[in-house]
Design a protein that fits this description.
It is a single chain. It is built from 8 helices and 9 strands. By secondary structure, the protein is an alpha/beta fold. The chain has one domain: TIM Barrel. The model has no long low-confidence stretch (mean pLDDT 94).
Length: 247
């Protein structure tokens, strides 16, 4: 199993020291990740430093050098307690809102990125939470790829292409099947131990750039596979929630 890297929560005011540490490790192994850029960050939890001057030009440079950019929500503020169609969490910026409201948020987010020179057709939902209205609004606004779901190859569903993330990093790392899966990282909250694990992963030789993921053949999913994904996502959330409660 090959592995690609996804970095969430890219904002002008993120923890730049941790981002640079993460980027340096990727650069050492010539790995180009997928990054989720928040168009208008209003989530105080993501604000770690003073906003970086020239941030948007910097993102454009990363994109020009092979980094893949996704739109990570609109302002990353959670508005509902809806888990949505991929229930690995219990909050959402989008799921549960009306179609019209979601359409406007996605439209404004895309226009904001475009005005700053960032063009993308990939969507990354905060907390992995979206519903059918989200997917419909994405298609209407020219998004064709969603970075979510479980599996080892991209799949087509609801008129969009989904690029799966890992259910369990250890099991994905040990998986000997052919395929690619995405490991999700949030540099803002990583500690030294997390960076050590990332470095060991990169040294394994299993990590590839995200562009390689996009070369795989896209599969079709049936209703039973979709149900299995939903149940797996809910089971993962329940397990992590119970472990958190027990300390």
């Amino acid at each position: 199993m090959k592995i690609t890297i996804r970095m969430d929560d890219i904002t002008p005011d993120m923890d730049w020291n941790k981002f640079k540490k993460f980027k340096n490790l990727l650069d050492e192994h010539d790995i180009k990740p997928l990054i989720g850029v928040v168009p208008e960050n209003r989530d105080r939890n993501l604000s770690k430093t003073e906003p970086r001057e020239g941030f948007w030009n910097y993102v454009k440079e990363l994109q020009e050098h092979g980094w893949i950019v996704a739109m990570h929500g609109y302002n990353h503020v959670y508005t509902t307690k809806k888990a949505g169609m991929f229930p690995v969490g219990d909050k959402s910026e989008f799921a549960g809102l009306s179609y019209d409201r979601q359409y406007e948020m996605i439209k404004e987010g895309k226009q904001t990125l475009k005005a700053r020179g960032i063009v993308t057709d990939i969507f990354m939902a905060p907390s992995h939470s979206f519903d059918k209205n989200t997917l419909r609004a994405l298609k209407e606004n020219g998004f064709y790829i969603v970075t979510d779901g479980f599996g080892i190859a991209p799949f087509r569903q609801h008129g969009l292409v989904f690029y799966p993330i890992s259910v369990n990093k250890r099991k994905s790392f040990e998986d000997t099947r052919d395929g690619i899966v995405t490991f999700v990282y949030h540099a803002n909250t990583m500690n030294d131990k997390d960076f050590d694990k990332l470095e060991k992963l990169l040294l394994s030789g299993k990590v590839v750039s995200y562009t390689e993921y996009k070369r795989l053949e896209i599969q079709d999913r049936n209703i039973y596979e979709s149900l299995g994904q939903y149940l797996t996502a809910r089971a993962k959330y329940t397990f992590l929630h119970l472990r958190k409660i027990r300390g």
